[in-house]
Specification:
This protein has 605 residues and is of the alpha/beta class. Helices cover 63% and strands 10% of the residues.
Length: 605
C-alpha cells in the first residue's frame, strides 16, 4: 500500500479540483441521506397513518426539531389542500432532491476528470524522465518490451484500476456513514444486520482477492514479454523469413500468448466475482432483514413507514458497498502495475553528478586514462584491466582488437555511460566524475556502427535538438558529410520523413546523416565507433572521404577493423582481453611482428 499512498501524493498538485470533488461528493451524500427520511411522509399518507401536527414549535438545529417542523408543514398541506395535493408536493420534493443529488454527482466527476488525467500525465512524464536518466547499465539487464509495457499498459492499468476509484473512495464512505447513522437512529437492532453484511462481505472478498495482486503483477510481466517478442520479431523479420523460422517464432509467441490469456482469465474471474457476490450477500441479508423487521412491525415496535424508509436506507448502502468491494479488487490489480512502475522509478542512478561538479567548456590539453579497471557488475570479471593511455588534443587515436577486447567499453567510459571500477579518467587534468554531465557530453560527438536515426525529418535528425541552427548551417554540415546530394534527391529534401529507424534510407545514407549530425555539433572530441564496418564498398568509399575531411585538425578516437580507417592515426592502441598489449604508429607496429601485424595480414588475406 506504500505505492498507493505515494501515487496519491500527486493529488497535492490539484488541490482546487480535489477540493471541488470532495465538496460535491459531500453534497451528493447529503442529498442521498436526506432522500431517505423524505419518503416517510409519503408512506404515512398512503397508509393513512399520518398524525397531524397543528402546533409549530420554534425550529432548532436538532434532528427531532427538524422532524417536528417537517411534520407540521406536511400536516398543513394535507389539511389545507388535501392528500392528493400533498402527495404531489412530496413527489416534487423527491424529484428536486434527486436532481440536486445527480447534479452534484456530475460536478464531482467533472472536477475529477482533469485530476485523474493529470496524474496519469505526470506519471508518464516522471517515468519518461527516469528512463532518460537511468544509466546504460540498467538497460543491459532489462528487456525493452517489458519497459515499454510498464510505460504504456502499466500506466493505463493504474488509470483504470486505481484512479477510477477515487470517486468511490470519497463518496461511498460518506453515503454509507450517513445511511448507517439514520438506520441506527431508527432501529439499532436492525442496523446490526447491516454491520454483519459489511463485515461478512469484507472477510469473504478479502479472502478471495489475496492472490489478485500477485497474479496481476505476473500478468503485467507476461505482457511485457509479449511486447518484447513482437518488437524483436519486427526488428528481425528479414532474418526470420530468410531462415524460414516463422513456425518456431509463431509457436513461441503462441505459448506466451496462451499463458497470458489463462492468467488474465483467472484475474478477471476473481475480480468479476466481487459484484455478484456482494449482491447475493445483500439479498441474503435483506431477506433476514425483512423477516425480522416485519416481526417488529407486527409487534408495534416499528412504524411501517419508518420500516420502509429503513429498507430504502439499507439499499442505499448496498450500492456503495458493492462499489467499495469492486474498488478493492481494482486497487489490488492496479497496485501490481503501480509496483512495476515504482520498480523503475526507484531504480538508483549510479551515474550521479557531483553536487560541486565543475564546468568545462573546451578540451585544451588531453584526455588520460590512468590505471583504469572496469567490470559491469561486482560479480562479473574485469572487462578492462590496468588501461592507461593519453589522447592529446588535435590527435587521432585508434583502438584495434578482436570483438570483446574492450574497445567499445573505452568509448562508453569516455562519455561516462558507466563509471570506472578502479583508476580514473582525466579531462584536462580533471576527473570526469567531478565534471557536469551536460558539459562532459557536450564535448563529444559520436558516430556509431549502427547509425541511429529517428522517425522524423532529415533536418531534425541532423540538428538533433540543437537550437539556433540555420538552414545554411545544416546544409554545410550535410555537404561535409557528403549527404547533401542524396538529401536533395529525396521527396521533400531536408523535410523528408525518414521512417522508423530510417527505413526509407540506405545504410550508407543513414551513416552520412549521423556524420552530418556530428559535424554540426562541432564538438572537441569526435568518436567513430566502427563507423564504416557495416557499409558496402561504394558507401564506405563515400563515408571515408567524408571522414577524412571531418577529422582534419580534430581530436578523434576511432574504433575500427579496417586498415584504411586507422593506418594514418597518430597512435594505435591494440587491445586483447581488456589490456593494451601494443601501442604506436602503423609503421612501428608493423615492424614488431606482433598482434597488430597479424591483424593487418588477416585483413590482406
Amino acid at each position: 500500500m506504500q505505492t498507493f499512498w505515494k501515487l496519491f501524493k500527486n493529488l497535492s498538485r490539484y488541490k482546487g479540483k480535489v477540493a471541488g470533488n470532495i465538496i460535491c461528493n459531500i453534497l451528493v451524500a447529503v442529498f442521498t441521506v436526506v432522500s431517505i427520511p423524505a419518503i416517510i411522509p409519503f408512506f404515512e399518507i398512503l397508509f393513512e397513518q399520518q398524525e397531524y401536527v397543528t402546533e409549530n414549535e420554534p425550529l432548532e438545529p436538532t434532528i427531532s426539531s427538524i422532524a417536528q417542523w417537517a411534520q407540521y408543514q406536511y400536516s398543513q398541506i394535507i389539511i389545507n389542500e388535501g392528500k392528493q395535493t400533498a402527495l404531489l408536493y412530496i413527489c416534487g420534493f423527491l424529484v428536486l432532491i434527486f436532481f440536486f443529488k445527480n447534479l452534484f454527482r456530475y460536478l464531482s466527476l467533472a472536477f475529477l476528470v482533469p485530476v485523474r488525467n493529470g496524474i496519469v500525465r505526470d506519471l508518464r512524464q516522471d517515468l519518461y524522465q527516469q528512463i532518460l536518466a537511468l544509466p546504460m547499465a540498467y538497460y543491459s539487464n532489462e528487456r525493452k518490451g517489458d519497459l515499454i509495457a510498464r510505460f504504456s499498459t502499466d500506466v493505463q492499468e493504474v488509470e483504470h484500476s486505481i484512479l477510477n476509484v477515487i470517486e468511490v473512495l470519497v463518496k461511498s464512505p460518506l453515503i454509507i456513514l450517513g445511511c448507517i447513522v439514520f438506520m441506527i437512529y431508527v432501529s439499532p437492532a436492525l442496523t446490526l444486520f447491516v454491520f454483519a453484511l459489511i463485515l461478512f462481505t469484507a472477510l469473504i472478498i478479502g479472502g478471495i482477492s489475496r492472490t489478485l495482486k500477485k497474479n496481476s503483477s505476473l500478468a503485467q510481466s507476461r505482457l511485457g514479454s509479449i511486447i518484447s517478442s513482437v518488437d524483436e520479431t519486427i526488428s528481425g523479420l528479414k532474418i526470420i523469413k530468410g531462415f524460414g523460422a516463422e513456425e518456431y517464432f509463431s509457436q513461441h509467441f503462441n505459448e506466451q500468448n496462451h499463458d497470458f490469456k489463462r492468467l488474465v482469465n483467472k484475474i478477471l474471474w476473481r475480480r468479476d466475482l466481487s459484484s455478484p457476490l456482494s449482491e447475493f450477500l445483500g439479498i441474503l441479508t435483506v431477506s433476514v432483514l425483512l423477516w425480522y423487521g416485519s416481526s417488529q412491525v407486527f409487534q408495534n415496535n416499528l412504524e411501517p413507514s419508518v420500516f420502509f424508509a429503513f429498507i430504502f436506507a439499507f439499499f442505499s448502502v448496498i450500492e456503495p458497498a458493492k462499489s467499495f468491494a469492486k474498488a478493492y479488487y481494482d486497487i489490488q490489480k492496479g497496485l501490481a502495475a503501480a509496483d512495476r512502475i515504482e520498480d523503475v522509478m526507484s531504480e538508483p542512478n549510479t551515474i550521479e553528478e557531483d553536487p560541486n561538479a565543475s564546468t568545462i567548456g573546451h578540451l585544451t590539453d588531453s584526455i588520460r586514462f590512468e590505471n583504469v579497471d572496469f567490470r559491469y557488475a561486482d560479480h562479473e570479471p574485469l572487462v578492462l584491466q590496468d588501461v592507461s593511455f593519453e589522447i592529446p588534443v588535435g590527435k587521432v587515436v585508434a583502438l584495434v582488437g578482436s570483438s570483446g577486447s574492450g574497445k567499445t567499453t573505452i568509448i562508453d567510459l569516455l562519455n561516462r555511460f558507466y563509471d570506472v571500477s578502479d583508476g580514473r579518467i582525466l579531462y584536462d587534468g580533471k576527473d570526469l566524475r567531478t565534471l557536469k554531465l551536460k558539459d562532459l557530453r557536450a564535448l563529444t560527438a559520436i558516430v556509431s556502427q549502427e547509425p541511429v536515426v529517428f522517425n522524423d525529418t532529415i533536418r531534425n535528425n541532423i540538428t538533433f535538438g540543437q537550437k539556433g541552427i540555420t538552414h545554411q548551417d545544416i546544409e554545410d554540415a550535410a555537404r561535409v558529410a557528403h549527404a547533401h546530394e542524396f538529401i536533395m534527391g529525396t521527396e521533400n529534401g531536408y523535410d523528408t520523413i525518414v521512417g522508423d529507424r530510417g527505413v526509407k534510407l540506405s545504410g550508407g545514407q543513414r551513416q552520412r546523416l549521423t556524420l552530418a549530425r556530428a559535424v554540426l555539433k562541432n564538438s572537441d572530441l569526435l568518436i567513430l565507433d566502427e563507423a564504416t564496418s557495416a557499409l558496402d564498398s561504394e558507401s564506405e568509399r563515400i563515408v571515408q572521404q567524408a571522414l577524412a575531411q571531418i577529422i582534419e585538425g580534430r581530436t578523434v578516437v576511432i574504433v575500427a577493423h579496417r586498415l584504411s580507417t586507422i593506418q594514418h592515426a597518430d597512435v594505435i592502441l591494440v587491445l586483447k582481453h581488456g589490456r593494451i598489449i601494443e601501442r604506436g604508429q602503423h609503421s612501428d607496429l608493423m615492424q614488431r611482428n606482433g598482434e597488430y601485424r597479424k591483424f593487418v595480414q588477416l585483413q590482406a588475406f
